[in-house]
Specification:
By secondary structure, the protein is α/β, with parallel strands linked by helices. It has 9 helices and 12 strands. α2 links the parallel β3 and β4.
Length: 246
Amino acid sequence: MKDASLRLAAELGGTRLSGDGGPILLIERVRAHGLPSLAVLGRAPSHFREALAAWEGGDAALNLALLIALPETDVTRAFAAHRRRIGAVSAALDASLPWLADRPMLAKRLPGLAEEGPPGPAFLGPLEAAELHAFLPDWDAARFDATFRSPESLLWPEAARPTRVKVEPLRLAVGSPLLDALRDALRRAFGHPIPLLPLPEDPSGLHALRVLSPEIAAFRGPMEAWDRALHALARLPAPPHFCARC
């Protein structure tokens, strides 16, 4: 595993960071020392393709810190251990969470995972359920229920808590400048409104990214959307600079 991760780091022009929590690959693109970094978590190099192309072809005043956590890694501990190495982070995005039905959207909440006991039904609410049905008009009731109301593992924020929780559910701040910037970037790229919807995926990556920055979101998009997002994020307030060199 170590040899494979070192080969991958060499292919991507990155560094394998080891230590507390386990190894992570850090692929850096530095525009100028002292600029804040945008941290992007991916589970495969392909998740970074558009972000890298947009950064390399643009002039946004941001450095880029691309993070790949290896399978045995406790990402929360690893990010905390290497926070200074990653640098001053303006925002942190998980680029590996998929869209629903492969259509552009932004996530406003994600379910956790229950370890023991039935989590109970998903509390979507009538307006939220109507939004989802409108977004997924070709889904039948069985597919919808299997995706959003699975009683086996998904734990939505409003559901009764089971005996043990493996991963906490997560609400994202939908009225934040970060979400506004990302939503506008997608809207301009696709030419139509972008909904904010619950996403039935594992939020553990976004929980880990909170160690780096309170400004977190799930974001995917074509190169045009990434280019707009990078420029918008460069204008957001950034934390005081720190990095391993200072």
